[in-house]
Design a protein that fits this description.
1 helix; Transposase; single chain
């Protein structure tokens, strides 16, 4: 996830056994302030981010 407000952004990552709504939601609650702008790829399990954050999913462009 790329997180940014009007300052320099940062990337937050974690190693997990499975990417699912539960693990994503726990990660977001632990690492992000509520209401932050978040960008990620369009992986469906990440859609839960939109419940707490300003979330924008983007399908990566393959060159």
């Amino acid at each position: 996830m790329k997180v940014s407000d009007k300052k320099a952004g940062f990337i937050a990552m974690a190693v997990v056994d499975s990417i699912c709504h539960f693990s994503v939601n726990e990660f977001v609650k632990k690492h992000l302030k509520q209401g932050q702008q978040v960008h990620s790829d369009a992986l469906p399990a990440l859609n839960i981010i939109g419940q707490r954050e300003n979330y924008e999913a983007r399908v990566p462009r393959v060159i």
